[in-house]
């Protein structure tokens, strides 16, 4: 497992338990997404993988509905694509 529920909630700035199940689903989905995209499995020792999953989860959490893309989301998507390329083609952190 790359991320814990506690560290993910801290990153999202969520201090209540009402959405724990949803956040756990996002954690699992982000880890599966990363594995499918790179063909590699990561654990909690890969800081780049942790960052990628946190950003992906944050984007999914904050944008539950389809929204028009804005400049911030374009920057986030560029950052995520850059991190994903490094994870896919580079060994180690």
TrEMBL record:
Record-linked Gene3D superfamilies: Phage gp6-like head-tail connector protein
Annotated InterPro entries: Phage_gp6-like_head-tail, Phage_HK97_gp6-like
Organism domain of life: Bacteria
CDD domains to which the protein is assigned, alphabetical: gp6
Name of the protein: Phage gp6-like head-tail connector protein
